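Pipeline run #58 for the internal structure catalog. This entry was flagged by the ingest filter as a single-chain record with no existing model, so it goes straight to prediction. Upstream metadata was stripped on purpose; only the residue string is passed forward. Reviewer on rotation: M.T. Logging verbosity set to normal.
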Amino acid sequence: MQSQEVKGYKSLMKKHEVKKPLFKSFSAAFLFGGGLCAAAQFIFNLFVRYGGWQHDQAAGIVLVIVIAVTTLVTALGYYDNLGQIAGAGLAVPISGFANSMVCAAIDDRSEGIVQGVATGSFKLAGAVIVFGCVSAFIVGIIYWLGGLLGFL
């Protein structure tokens, strides 16, 4: 059972809630996210077709380019403004992760390079790295056991 105060608060919040235009938000996310991925694919195709690079080499350098551009746009202060327009479209995993790391580093820059920037950027990355390594270890054990028992 909810108390009368909670019901009153919920009705007050509902009255002042900002309605977001869903179609506009979805469209912007689709266009920006698709545009980012299309640009990355275009660069990839240039490296493979005209640069003579192998697919794995081109993929690696395209990831580095996306990370570098995201880092630059975040450091210059434009990523948040673009994020307000693009919504989830800029949350393509590699660019969203790069933005998160740069923001954490910028927030802690007043404490110096080592104690601020270096440790601040790994507040988020540390958890991702730990859980990524643990997950890889578990999958490796499962794969090994599957091979040992003749399933794989």
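catalog note: The helical segments are 4-16, 22-49, 55-75, 79-86, 93-107, 113-148.
catalog note: The mean pLDDT is 84.
status: ready for reviewer M.T.
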